[in-house]
Amino acid sequence: MPPVLESMRVVEITEALAGPYCAMLLGDFGADVIKVERRITGDHARGWGPPFAAGESAYFLAANRNKRSLTLDYDHPAGREVLERLIATADVLLINQPSLASLRRRALDPETLLKQYSRLIYCAISGYGLGPSVKTGQPGYDIVAQAEAGVMSFTGEPQGEPVRYPVAIADMTCGAYAAMGILAALLARERSGQGQFLDMALFDSQLTWLINIGSNWLNCGKEPVRWGNAHPSIVPYEVFAGSDGRNFVLGVGTEPLWLKLTNLLGEETGWADEPRFATNAQRIEHRAELIPMLRERFRRRPAAIWLEKLALAKIPAAAIQSVPEALGQAQSVERSMIVEIEHPLLGIARSVGNPVRLSQSPPTYRLPPPLLGEHTAAILGELRYDENEVAELRRSAAV
Q1: What is the pLDDT of residues 83-140, one digit of tens each?
Q2: Are residues 142 and 26 in the same domain?
Q3: Are 364 and 374 in contact, with CB atoms under 8 Å apart?
Q4: Same domain, 255 and 134
Q5: Can the peptide bond before residue 50 be classed as cis, meaning omega within 30 degrees of 0?
Q6: Catalytic center residues
Q7: Where would you find the membrane-spanning parts of this chain (predicted)?
Q8: Is the dihedral of CA 274, 275, 277, 278 positive or negative?
Q9: Cα radius of gyration rounded to whole Å, the chain
Q10: Mind listing the pLDDT tens digit for each residue in 294-322?
């Protein structure tokens, strides 16, 4: 079966992570993604480093496979003509600008383009949405979204400062939600024949991550506090260490799991029949008594021994692995989660794969992250520019 999005063209005018990640996900399923970049410098992420691999930013390499790069100055009259021809061929336009005003100045706003191209799926990604809202037009970065959406307020140790999650979760979730929205819009277009406008915001995407914590406040008036690695609603559910000092995590979210754990730790503990620990609610109430006893018990043997026993008992637990360990482990390899694509400078470009596994139309990895402007001539040819016209576009610095 051919890739499910093989006939779709995505024009991506985005930078950094949220938009590029969204476009990459669509490219993994066969979409022809054309990444429109500024001349000379390209996507900001091309300069984000170190580290660099053969002069290419590792950050850029992470979110730009399965794309072709077109360099373009669309404020130049001839460059604008190129962009208009390109958008006319697109099923999806993915763009990031902070406000409608900035888009209207270039006549790239959704109202204008959807009048011209009624089947276009127009997806805008910004910090706070294109409006109306009190913060429309303000720049948005991942750390700002994590802070303003409340996520950082309960991340970190109880007596410490709020902590930013080190991976750009606001960007990645916004990109993933945008891809989901685009797929829904494409399905709707199959039924109605009409395109539509998607207004995606980093803030909204990060606010959804409050999930049960948000529900605690909305329905019970309970405000979260920082628990470090512990869980406010499940005990035990945190980090422990073996006699060798190796850390591991343990999650006991049901009463059957608790009984399994007490059996594993030994009948002599008496915990299976201890009323203070009989239910999760009681274990939460007596957390301060239970957790130190568990820590003392686990310190009697190396972590590997405990993890082997926990695995045999089907109790959720895992060693806290380093990034090299996580990427190199058999599970990652067996699930085909490490992607290798031939690259003109690196030889092989490696990245973390797409987690969506379809039995009939799985993701494909066809193109490495592009060099800046690598496909400009080929794309212009597809837009019916001849060699002389391409040369003139280059001479005038339109491309």
Answers
A1: 999 999 999 999 998 888 889 999 999 999 999 999 999 999 999 999 777 787 788 8
A2: yes
A3: no
A4: no
A5: yes
A6: 171
A7: none
A8: positive
A9: 25
A10: 999 999 999 999 999 999 999 999 999 99
